[in-house]
Amino acid sequence: MKATFMYGAGDVRIETVADPVIQQPTDAIVRVVRACICGSDLHPYHSMPASERGQSMGHEMIGIVEELGSAVALVKVGDFVVAPFAFQDNTCAFCRDGVQTSCVHGGFYATAETAGLQAELARVPQADGSLVKVAGADASTADEALLASLLSLSDVYLTGYHAAHMGRVEAGKTVTVIGDGAVGLSAVLASRQLGAERIILMGRHTSRTDLGIEFGATDVVAERGEEGIAKVMQLTNGEGSHIVLEAVGHMPAYEQAYGIVRPGGIISRVGVPQYEEAPVGFGSLFGKNATLTGGPAPVRAYLEPAIQQVLNGEIDPGRVFDRRVAIDEVPAGYAAMDAREALKVMVTF
Amino acid sequence: MKATFMYGAGDVRIETVADPVIQQPTDAIVRVVRACICGSDLHPYHSMPASERGQSMGHEMIGIVEELGSAVALVKVGDFVVAPFAFQDNTCAFCRDGVQTSCVHGGFYATAETAGLQAELARVPQADGSLVKVAGADASTADEALLASLLSLSDVYLTGYHAAHMGRVEAGKTVTVIGDGAVGLSAVLASRQLGAERIILMGRHTSRTDLGIEFGATDVVAERGEEGIAKVMQLTNGEGSHIVLEAVGHMPAYEQAYGIVRPGGIISRVGVPQYEEAPVGFGSLFGKNATLTGGPAPVRAYLEPAIQQVLNGEIDPGRVFDRRVAIDEVPAGYAAMDAREALKVMVTF
Fold first, then answer.
1. pLDDT digits (tens, 9 = 90+) for B155-201
2. How far is A286 from chain B (nearest CA, A)?
3. How many H helices and E strands in chain B?
4. CB A195 within 8 A of CB A212
5. Are B101 and B86 in contact (CB under 8 A)?
6. A2: buried, middle or exposed (CB in 10 Å: 19+, 13-18, 0-12)?
7. Inter-chain residue contact A289 with B264, CB threshold 8 Å
8. Chain B contact for A293, CB < 8 A?
9. What are the beta bridge partners of residue A324?
10. Residue B172: its chain A contacts at CB < 8 A?
């Protein structure tokens, strides 16, 4: 099969490798229908040291189940499935709490445990907990918009949703979303779904913030840093934002977040922090009783109702995809996202 | 009147100064019935540079209203009142949100705005928002246990309660309280009130942890650091604590907190952080979707029902007071708390 490997910053290659095989009785082999490139894939694309050994890539896909281990009971060969970006048994104590990304038998794709999903075939561990059937749709007849929205449930939309959920977005609240990438725009759409009264989107790329407005943003703030903070404070009558959804992961975004959060408000992060230490003392969070929450999205916890919303046409999160590449063109897809020519790149097979 | 001043680390003096007078139409003058010394008063007692000018001290009291400004409507002369450790109008947007410590017209005692409360008389700004009448008790006939419990509502018990409230303590949850000072013990009592299933108290002073057990602690962990973390993990079947209430404020306590919090769990801080930066990235909070919350307790938000609970005999938070000193003996009270000979010192007049 063809699969994607990164050999260092800026060096992505498609190679032909052996097809994956069942290794554990809980495994499934899935033929990938659509995969995609994630904003988080750009971190190694910027910084990975050159290596002779390629790093398998990708963690988002929808596909058709081809083969099952002997212990798999809930998933069937031929099922059209969405795969959350992390695998999990969905039965352990943490899964039952709705924190499937901390599953005691779980893990991540493109690691030593299992290969990446920017590939024609995937071995999915813990298949019963990690694959959710799309009942009522057929991969071979579904239109591209439906495939895109289902694919977005693998990570990007439900990561935005996780931010909003952990931020306790609800009717009457003012929400500020920091970041106009695909996750930030997804957080706008999710906040709208959860009834936010006002949604301020902080971003500088008009083509992206325009989609943000279509997703439900009521205000766009292009300024950053102190100017951006001042603008949001002005928009909120000097009181700040009840909820701040931080979809970037860099320190300036975090600093903006505590600058604009209202006393008693919530900062919810889903951008993977590119820092370990940050201000949390009296001058940032503590003094105004601000809450800091968020983390890797337990997509599995939200997947069934989200699939239903997509099938019902209630949400169209797949609109974040603005470019399609065939598997052989994946390196060009990385380059386009890195150059911000593309918001989110879908991979076809 | 007699009042308490600090002139430097270890140097507390009682001085006779002019009685306070009404300065604003919203002020009240209150004769202090009981005041006390706070754990947070020990920070300057350790580190304050020597000064020729004394720093007014104290922020906790119960008393009798003596005089009122012309705009005060809710409080009456002769009322027996509890004063939250911060003053507030209790009507602004943040007060209505229940974050009275961020009141736009609020502030703190023993600052440039108004003097400290370890004194015979106090000027209380924003009296209508800052004094709550104890209906159904008389200061002159109340027994010492009742006075102690009412005094504890000025700060220490409701700070512990705030920790538990922000940590969303409820039935079925495992709570770990870090710190066996008066706030930590109050957090134990509040967690019990809120229905926690299991309450692990981390502290090394047997006389204090014994009171913690009477307040509802089910387990005591005397170990600290990595050993303390290992002990709590062992007690929680390797899963960690749903909720961690951090009542210390030093970095080792914070490190313990993220070491023992369960994936998806909550760390609620009420110990004033003696640091500004701290770990919050993938390896501490983000990776396990832990939430960090807490801040200065909006005592006013919780005061009426807590007064009722005390009057009904449902809670006895005043048991944290284990020493009484007259106003002239306040310096000895500081020394006793600093030497850990006393848990919490009450000041009589």
1. 999 999 999 999 999 999 999 999 999 999 999 999 999 999 999 99
2. 5
3. 11, 19
4. no
5. yes
6. middle
7. no
8. yes
9. A346
10. none
* Cβ of residue A291 closer than 8 Å to a chain B Cβ: yes
Name the pLDDT band for A136 (thresholds 50, 70, 90).
Answer: confident
Asked whether the predicted pLDDT for residue B111 surpasses 90, the reply is yes
What does the alpha-carbon distance between residue B34 and residue B118 come to, in Å, rounded to a whole number? 9
Cα–Cα distance between B257 and B292 in angstroms, integer?
10
What residues 66-105 of chain B have any CB closer than 8 A to a CB of chain A? 93-94, 97-99, 101-102
Q: Which residue of B263, B278, B289 is in closest CB contact with A294? A: B289
Please, which residues 248-267 of chain A have a Cβ atom closer than 8 Å to chain B? 262-264
Helix (H) or strand (E) holding B324: strand B323-326
Residue with tokens 């009783």: A289
Q: What residues does CATH 3.90.180.10 cover in chain B?
A: 2-155+298-348
Q: Tell me: domain B159-294, CATH 3.40.50.12780, correct?
A: no
Over residues A263-299, the pLDDT tens digits come to 999 999 998 999 999 999 999 999 999 999 999 999 9
CA distance B265 to chain A (A): 10
**A157-294 — its CATH code?**
3.40.50.720
Cβ of A291 and B99 within 8 Å?
Answer: no
Share of chain A above pLDDT 90, in %: 99
CATH class of the structural domain A2-155+298-348? alpha beta
Which residue shows structure tokens 């924003």?
B126
